Every structure is written in C-alpha cells, then in structure tokens.
Amino acid sequence: ELKVEQNPLFLSMQEGKNYTIYCNYSTTSDRLYWYRQDPGKSLESLFVLLSNGAVKQEGRLMASLDTKARLSTLHITAAVHDLSATYFCAVAVQGGSEKLVFGKGTKLTVNP
Amino acid sequence: DVKVTQSSRYLVKRTGEKVFLECVQDMDHENMFWYRQDPGLGLRLIYFSYDVKMKEKGDIPEGYSVSREKKERFSLILESASTNQTSMYLCASSFRPQHFGDGTRLSIL
Questions:
Q1: How far off is chain B from A33, nearest CA to CA, in Å?
Q2: Mutate to test the interface with A, among B38, B96, B102 (most CBs of A within 10 A)
Q3: Chain A nearest-CA residue for B95
Q4: What percent of chain A has pLDDT over 70?
Q5: pLDDT tens figures, B35-94
Q6: Are A12 and A111 contacting, i.e. CB atoms less than 8 angstroms apart?
Q7: SS3 content of chain B, % helix, strand, coil (to 5)
C-alpha cells in the first residue's frame, strides 16, 4: 500500500530565507505532483514530475524527484509573503489508474 | 483551461438526510474523483470513476455512494448523513494533473 509522508507539517519562515519541504513515499511510482492550496480555496497544480532526476522551477519554487530514494523536494528560495499557503505532494498509484495518494500537507507561513 | 464545477460552496443538512453533491467537468475527462479534506488528515479518496457507469471505491467509501450517468457529471451521495461526515468535499477530474473544483463545505447538524 502506497504511503506518502510530508515534512514538516508546519513551517514558519522569514521573508528572504530558503527552505525545503520533503515528500517521501513508500512504493514505486512513475508520477509525483505538487499542489498549492490557499485558505478557503481549492488545490492548484504547481508541478508534475515524471522521471528520476526531474527538476521543475517556477519563480521561487523548485521541485525535484529522486525515484530511487522515493523522495521529492520542494525548495523555496528567498521566500516572500505571497508564498504563504499549504503545499501538498501527491504520488500516483502504480497500475494504470489515475489514483493519487496525498501527503498531509505543509502549511507554510512567511513572515515579514 | 479545465473547469470543474461543484454545485454548492456551502451546504447545511440534518442527520439522517440523503445528501447529493454534484460535480461537472468540461474537458471530456474519463477519470473523476471525490475526496474529503479534514484538518490534519489531508485529502482522502472516497470514490473514483474511470468511465460512465464505472466506479471504484477509494480509501474511505463507507457511508457514501456515487453516480456517473454522463461523462461530464459525477455525483457523491451521502445515503444517511451523519455528523462525522461534516467536512470539505473536493471533486477532481483528470488527465494528469488532476484539476480540482472549489470544494463544498458540508455541515451535518
């Protein structure tokens, strides 16, 4: 059974600092997604990672995937207040369906 | 852009009522999903559908059923609502990534 663990669950950081959110998963998968959720809003897709060594960047966020270690990271560079949100990783269940298993989410607060 | 529309943003129902949550997508996706989101628990899959009239149980199907009579529409049914079904319900349709609706915050009194 696929299990997905994200850490930390809560992250409070100052503007301008760097930090990394980690997403570990327990069984082989060929796809991993990162989503963002603002308070009271729905989930917005940020990145789709499809292969070992994949790296995607958008603004101050960079996501990477190591399928051998079953680990993805979401790196935040020089954080700004607008990045405050909850970030989820989601891992695809192998076997041909489109099912995903989500981590519990990391609530990021960026303080001025 | 993919649009996934959930029929209600907020809903209040009473214990024992039969509750219908509706979801419509405009991208001709085959796969549609219902999740519930609770604080500290993340998103948990209730049911999903990979084609019209086809469905599979997710991780927490107890107390729920679904209906997919048309490709664009996926309904979640609470057969006899209970207070522990108070939650945020999210619908999604897919093809890679999953696209989510705005959610329905359901309160069962």
A1: 7
A2: B96
A3: A98
A4: 100
A5: 999 988 889 999 999 999 999 999 999 999 999 999 999 999 999 999 999 999 999 998
A6: yes
A7: 5, 60, 40
